[in-house]
């Protein structure tokens, strides 16, 4: 064998080794891509399930929120009536305090009038006694 033939065999073996390494590399890439496809398919099916469940949850939530809104609309007048009742009670309390103050003030005035009446009766009694005594002296 000549030097050129040996060089050709070495080059052919080197090329064969290169092709083998490239083939193994491509097979590993093929296996990895197959696993990636399986993962993507699994994720896609999981996302579909999650999407359907989310739609159901959203529909249930919308129904629940509508129900709560309807009940709030029913209860709102009750709270308004309670607020109005509280205002009425507050107004009644203020009016009662005002009336109590007026009665208290008129009681003071009445007490003053009572004292004046007693003084007047006493003065009248003294005047009548004085007149009677004067008449008795004249007789």
Automatic annotation (TrEMBL):
The keyword Protease does not apply. Keywords: Membrane, Transmembrane, Transmembrane helix. SUPFAM superfamilies: Methyl-accepting chemotaxis protein (MCP) signaling domain. The chain crosses the membrane at residues 6-27. InterPro entries: UPF0478. Gene3D superfamilies: Methyl-accepting chemotaxis protein. It comes from the Bacteria. Pfam families: DUF948. The keyword Transmembrane applies. This is Methyl-accepting chemotaxis family protein. It comes from Lentilactobacillus senioris DSM 24302 = JCM 17472. The lineage of its organism: Bacteria, Bacillati, Bacillota, Bacilli, Lactobacillales.
């Amino acid at each position: 064998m000549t030097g050129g033939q040996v060089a050709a065999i070495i080059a052919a073996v080197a090329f064969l080794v290169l092709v083998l390494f490239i083939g193994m590399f491509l097979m590993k890439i093929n296996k990895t891509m197959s696993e990636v496809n399986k993962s993507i398919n699994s994720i896609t099916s999981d996302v579909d399930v999650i999407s359907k469940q989310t739609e159901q949850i959203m529909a249930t939530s919308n129904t629940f929120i509508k129900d709560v809104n309807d009940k709030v609309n029913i209860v709102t007048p009750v709270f308004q009536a309670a607020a109005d009742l509280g205002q009425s009670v507050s107004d009644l309390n203020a009016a009662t305090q005002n009336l109590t103050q007026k009665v208290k003030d008129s009681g003071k005035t009445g007490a003053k009038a009572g004292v004046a009446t007693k003084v007047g009766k006493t003065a009248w009694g003294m005047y009548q006694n004085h007149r009677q005594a004067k008449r008795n002296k004249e007789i």
